[in-house]
Amino acid sequence: RIGILRDHNLKLKDIQDVIATIRPLEGALEMINWIKQKVPMVIVSDTFTQFADPLIAQLNRPTLFCNELIIDDEGFIAGFRLRQEDQKRKVVQALQGLKYTLIAMGDSYNDTTMLMQAEHGILFRPPDNVIRDFPQFPIAKNYQDLKEIISGVV
């Protein structure tokens, strides 16, 4: 993929310009602010800091843990640096090691080890196959559902 980007003369800035046109889900900023009034919040993502930055800026820069792209002197993506394998679960473990109790939210299979590790795992707007495969987690179909679930544990 990195080679295809270079072949088409697409630099990180070009990708960020497109990402900057994406708007957060309606109500996302309000939800983040509501959560931050209740508890500390960290977003853990499998994406890359440079891709997430335009969207995170629209959300008033909540704390974000994710991977890094390697950018060459010309502005092309030259590679990437993954923080660690199964990083979402390991972030939860690290915070638990600091005696935090964790509420984790996710929507897909790549979130399930994190959800299982946390004291409280929540599926937020997951597809039906994830609901079917992980029935142990409460499901929030919208921000109001999410507020009710979180309010029940904090």
Overview of this structure, please?
The chain is of the alpha/beta class and 154 residues long. The protein is 44% helix and 19% strand. It is built from eight helices and six strands, in the order αααβαββαβαβαβα. The strands form two sheets. The protein has a three-stranded mixed beta sheet with strand order 1-2-3, sandwiched between helices. The chain has a three-stranded parallel beta sheet with strand order 4-5-6. α2 runs parallel beside α4. The model has no long low-confidence stretch (mean pLDDT 96).
What attributes does this structure have?
three-stranded mixed sheet, 8 helices, 19% strand, 44% helix, 154 residues, alpha/beta, three-stranded parallel sheet
Gist?
The protein has helices at residues 2-7, 12-19, 28-38, 49-58, 87-97, 112-117, 128-133, 143-151; strands at 43-48, 64-71, 77-81, 103-106, 120-124, 139-140.
What are the SSEs and their pairings?
Elements: H1 2-7, H2 12-19, H3 28-38, E1 43-48, H4 49-58, E2 64-71, E3 77-81, H5 87-97, E4 103-106, H6 112-117, E5 120-124, H7 128-133, E6 139-140, H8 143-151
Parallel strand pairs: 1-2, 4-5, 5-6
Antiparallel strand pairs: 2-3
What Rg, in angstroms, do the CA atoms define? 17 Å
What structural class do you assign from the helix and strand content? alpha/beta
User: What does the main sheet amount to?
Assistant: 3 strands, mixed
Report the sheet-strand fraction. Answer: 15-25%
Helicity, as a percent range: 40-55%
Whole-Å distance between the termini?
A: 43 Å
Counted beta strands: 6
* Widest sheet: strand ordering: 1-2-3
Question: Strand-and-helix sequence, N→C?
Answer: HHHEHEEHEHEHEH
Output the number of helix runs. 8
Whole-number mean pLDDT: 96
The best one-word shape is globular
Regions with pLDDT < 50 over 5+ consecutive residues? none
